[in-house]
Amino acid sequence: MSKFVVVIPARYASTRLPGKLLRDIAGEPMIQHVHRVATRSKADEVWIATDDQRIADVAKGFGANVCMTAEHHTSGTERIAEVCDQLEWPDDLAIVNLQGDEPLMPPDLINQCAALLEDPDVDMATLASELFAAEDYENVNVAKVIVDKDDNALYFSRAAIPFSRDPDTLEQTLGAALRHHGIYGYRRRVLATLVAAEPCVLEQCEKLEQLRALWLGLTLRVGRATLRPGPGVDTEEDLAKVQAAFS
pLDDT tens digit string along 15-35? Predict the structure, then answer.
């Protein structure tokens, strides 16, 4: 596998669950569990990117590489772009963006996401799994993606896509949609293209930053996750599920 690095964007001021990256899971802060997942992958380096001194102090305490970034970033992608600039990484370096609220992301999936970038036709990579339940299809907190015949993303949405006009075809519709997982891979030069562009209207409507890549015409390859990751943490209910999984 080609060289790649993992960057974990770590914001304290989460809208739905402020300070969640420092919340306790089995005696350790969430960000420590996420960092451990990343270090168990084949990444050559793992960095935590934050604008908050509390997160930085905790991360340095368990031995993580920390890059302090500006407060004005509106997405993890922008924060990682600043890390690239500060550390002067080369344009062809492969970078995996692992969300700081994904303590149950298997390390093998980090490797799988990075491996997708070895295809020269791929600008950006991510992972998804089958949708098994109708309630997930309808859940606006579950991001869905539909792909073309080459597994390149056509569209991401919080809505139930594709829409089924015939209730009898719901099972077929569920098979057409995939549940998107919050992990991305890109080379630095593609990352620079993303952050140089203004947020597009689709991104602003859905609050899904990956739609900017599609708006720009980039090829976003969607790998079928070889393992199904545990839930990410957006709410108190999510946190309770993760805490139960660890216990």
Answer: 778 899 999 999 999 999 999
What is the pTM (predicted TM-score) of this model?
Answer: 0.93
Q: What are the extents of the domains in the chain?
A: 4-118+180-246
Both tokens of 36, joined, read 């451990």
Pairwise CA distance, residues 176 & 187, whole Å: 29
Alpha helices per DSSP H over the chain: 30-39, 53-61, 76-87, 107-116, 134-138, 170-176, 188-196, 201-206, 211-215, 236-246
List, for residues 187-203, the tens digit of each pLDDT value.
999 999 999 998 899 99
Neighbouring residues of 15: CB distance < 8 A, sequence distance ≥ 6 = none
At the top level of CATH, which class does the domain 4-118+180-246 belong to?
A: alpha beta
Q: Residue 4: how many CA atoms within 13 Å on its side-chain side?
A: 27
How many CA atoms are closer than 13 Å to the CA of 125, on its beta-carbon side? 25
Using one digit for the tens of pLDDT, what is the confidence trace for 31-59?
999 999 999 999 999 999 999 999 999 99
Classify the phi-psi angles of 101: left when phi > 0, otherwise alpha if psi is within -120 to 50, otherwise beta.
Answer: alpha
CA atoms lying within 13 Å on the CB side of residue 59 = 26
Q: At what angle do helices 30-39 and 107-116 cross, to 10 degrees?
A: 60
Chain-centroid distance, C-alpha 158: 15
Mean pLDDT over 182-188 rounds to: 95
Q: Which residue has the tokens 């451990």?
A: 36
- Residue 138 tokens read as 């309808």
